[in-house]
Design brief:
Strand content: under 5%
Largest sheet: none
Number of strands: 0
Number of domains: 1
Helix content: over 70%
Number of helices: 5
Radius of gyration: 19 Å
Structural class: mainly alpha
Distance between the termini: 38 Å
Low-confidence stretches: none
Mean pLDDT: 88
Keywords: Membrane, Transmembrane, Transmembrane helix
């Protein structure tokens, strides 16, 4: 049962991350050069049109970090054990996808190629730590309430 729960958690985290990145790209109408909702259907043409826009790639790094953090939080909330490890798994999968993107499509600037390594793992780790800290704080609070409970 834990395998199914953990798999579901990872899929939810990846879905949330992808949705946030998609919404982030669509946030600025001047960047939308496609008809469909998801920019990934026309990614090569889209990247070619953005290849000289450094602000776009900086924002893509930011929105990827934000999406990975929120995806890591969602994953860590759903899994029962090893919350930070599963959140980092979201970062690893997103890094793998970003590396494939950089290898397949040659339109990324150098700072983006380097910065993806500094974005996905730390932000997914932060997402997992947020949930871990909240759970630990609540656990300590429950233990303190049990100990201070009048008999």
């Amino acid at each position: 049962m834990n395998f199914i729960r953990n798999t579901f958690a990872v899929l939810v985290g990846l879905g949330i991350t992808g949705l946030i990145i998609t919404l982030g790209i669509r946030a600025f109408p001047q960047w939308v050069t496609f008809e469909a909702f998801a920019p990934f259907e026309h990614w090569q043409r889209f990247l070619f049109s953005m290849k000289d826009d450094k602000a776009f790639f900086g924002f893509l790094l930011f929105i990827s970090g934000l999406g990975t953090t929120i995806g890591g939080v969602a994953t860590a909330i759903i899994v029962k054990y090893a919350k930070v490890a599963y959140a980092i798994l979201i970062g690893f999968i997103m890094l793998f996808i970003a590396m494939l993107d950089v290898i397949i499509f040659p339109y990324h600037p150098t700072f983006y190629k380097i910065s993806i390594f500094l974005t996905f793992f730390p932000f997914s780790w932060i997402g997992g730590k947020i949930v871990e800290v909240i759970y630990e704080r609540n656990k300590k609070k429950r233990i303190a309430e049990k100990m201070n409970k009048p008999k």
